[in-house]
């Protein structure tokens, strides 16, 4: 094989390999990840309003009682600058109409997920497909920077010295 043919084959292979992500609709964002929640045959869609979603991304898990039951399908900015998170939930999971939602982390620096919680005095019935969980029933975790700032305030109030400084004698 001469040099021109080899260069043409290499160029074609490079273009094919690097553009492969664009062949899929929406890039790799549309590909299901292994180990995700089983959505079943008939999942239902919910929209959840949050003031802050921290580092939540599409394809993050949705959990009920620490069991994966769904996935985040989209995150958009609402008209009043709130985060509009669209989730798909397994159709076999029955949630009350007044379900609550919050963004949680697996650990201090871990991945984020949406937790759905039934209130202690949950209303009877089942949430419907396409329902919206409003801001009044959602919460987001504090950012780690805010946690460290509060720790610093507590340590200062307790009289502990800051790291790197010695106490005056």
Q: State the separation between the terminal residues, measured CA to CA.
A: 82 Å
Order of helices and strands: HHEEEEEEEEH
| SS elements, strand count | 8
Poorly predicted runs of 5 or more residues: none
> Biggest β-sheet, characterized?
8 strands, mixed
Number of helical stretches of at least 4 residues: 3
Helix content: 10-25%
Report the portion of residues in β strands. 25-35%
Give the mean pLDDT: 81
**Widest β-sheet, arrangement of strands:** 7-1-4-3-2-6-5-8
Radius of gyration: 23 Å
The structure class reads alpha/beta
Please provide a written account of the structure.
- The protein has a domain at 37-143.
- β3 and β4 (83-89) form a beta hairpin.
- The chain is built from 3 helices and 8 strands.
- The mean pLDDT is 81.
- By secondary structure, it is α/β, with parallel strands linked by helices.
- The protein has an 8-stranded mixed β-sheet, with no helix packed on it.
- It is 20% helix and 27% strand.
- The longest helix is centred in the N-terminal third of the chain and has 16 residues, at 3-18.
Spell out the blueprint of helices and strands.
Elements: H1 3-18, H2 20-23, E1 44-50, E2 61-64, E3 67-77, E4 83-89, E5 100-105, E6 112-117, E7 132-133, E8 138-139, H3 144-157
Parallel strand pairs: 1-7, 2-6, 5-8
Antiparallel strand pairs: 1-4, 2-3, 3-4, 5-6
